[in-house]
Every structure is written in C-alpha cells, then in structure tokens.
Specification:
heterodimer, A: seven-stranded mixed β-sheet, 11 strands, about 0% helix, B: mainly beta, six-stranded mixed β-sheet, four-stranded antiparallel β-sheet
C-alpha cells in the first residue's frame, strides 16, 4: 500500500491567495483527519470525516478554512484567503474505525508558507 | 478536556545509552495512550499504544512504554539508543471508546551523540 498521499509537499503562496491541499487516504479506510502543526501550538486536529461525512470541525480556525471529502479516496483542505499566520505543516491521516478506535496513519504532510 | 504534557522539550543522549521520555496526561478515566515518532520532513509513525491490559507495552524499533495510573504517566523507554532514533517524539491521548480525537503533547526532540 502506498500509504496516505498528500500533495503538494511544499506550497509557497502570497497572502490573500487561495490554497488547496489534497489528501488521498489509504484504500479501505473510512475515516480521515486533517491536522495542523505549528511551533507555537503543536499538533491540532482541524476536522475529521467518517464515511465522507464531516463529524467534528470544531478545530477549524475560522471561516477561511473549509474541507471537503467528495468520495472515499479524496479530500481537500482549502484556505481562502490565506494569511501569513496560516503557515504550518498540514497533515492528513486516515483510519478504519468501526465501533472502536483504530490506528491513524499519517501522510508526509504539506509545508505551507504564506508570504 | 484531556491534555498531555511532555515536560522535556529537548533531550540529548549518547549512542548506546538508555532513554526515557516522559509523558503525563490529564483525564479522569483510563485513556487510550500512544507514542508517535516524527523524523525530519516526515509524517508521524506509531511506535506503540496502550488501550488496556498489561501496563507495559512493547512497540516497534525496540521501544516500550509503561502506563502508571497512579502517576498519570505513560513514559517511553529504550535500553540502548541508536543514532537513527534521533527524531521528535509525541505522546498522545484519546479520551476513550467513542472518541476519535487524538490530543498530542508538544513533543520531545531527541538528539543522539555518536
């Protein structure tokens, strides 16, 4: 298995631009998680989906952030408009959850720099 | 809400020396506990996990961790560190059955001196 795939690996953009991060979970997994990692706040859960449905988006910082999962094999995290404080590493993770917790497998992350 | 504290931001050990990374959690019931490792530029890899049962759990790469309820701790240990163990280590907790949200500690960066 190729594992969780994220693209792009690095993104540099200017303030005000739209940014779209992409994630392909492990085939067969039914849950997908988006995390953000910064020096100040560490690793934070932004949103998670179960069976393509957003279950908890309480970690999404503000309306500029949105996430979608149109099917079981693809998810996007969009920031519009982007700001310098959005600079961070964004991780996607997937898991198969059925009644009880199971391991989350993390992708390599997307390093976002907003100038 | 649960929280995780990793009191050591950075630890340096010599290759071949033993290692213990500390983790304390705050949660009323028995949580699910995890240790992850992150190598530079990489995602997180699960080292080991504790859900219930034997309080000493074995993981990959020769790591083990011990759950101590009385101390609310889940410290990670390795008897002999290798240079390839240099990385950042994260302790994480889930509040239990029905919850899927991982809460991470701030991490401990491990440096290994040859």
């Amino acid at each position: 298995d190729a594992g969780v795939i994220q693209s792009p690996r690095h993104e540099v953009t200017e303030m005000g631009q739209e940014v779209t991060l992409r994630c392909k979970p492990i085939s067969g997994h039914n849950s997908l998680f988006w995390y953000r990692q910064t020096m100040m706040r560490g690793l934070e859960l932004l949103i998670y989906f179960n069976n393509n449905v957003p279950i908890d988006d309480s970690g999404m910082p503000e309306d500029r952030f949105s996430a979608k999962m149109p099917n079981a094999s693809f998810s996007t995290l969009k920031i519009q408009p982007s700001e310098p404080r959005d600079s961070a590493v964004y991780f996607c993770a997937s898991s198969f959850i059925q009644g009880s917790y199971n391991e989350q497998f993390f992708g390599p992350g997307t390093r976002l720099t907003v100038l | 809400a649960q929280s995780v504290t990793q009191p050591d931001i950075h630890i340096t050990v010599s290759e071949g020396a033993s290692l213990e990374l500390r983790c304390n959690y705050s949660y009323g019931a028995t949580p699910y506990l995890f240790w992850y490792v992150q190598s530079p530029g990489q995602g997180l890899q699960l080292l080991l996990k504790y859900f219930s049962g034997d309080t000493l759990v074995q993981g990959i790469k020769g790591f083990e961790a011990e759950f101590k309820r009385s101390q609310s701790s889940f410290n990670l240990r390795k008897p002999s560190v290798h240079w390839s163990d240099a990385a950042e280590y994260f302790c994480a907790v889930i509040s239990g059955a029905g919850s899927y949200q991982l809460t991470f500690g701030k991490g401990t960066k491990l440096s290994v001196i040859p």
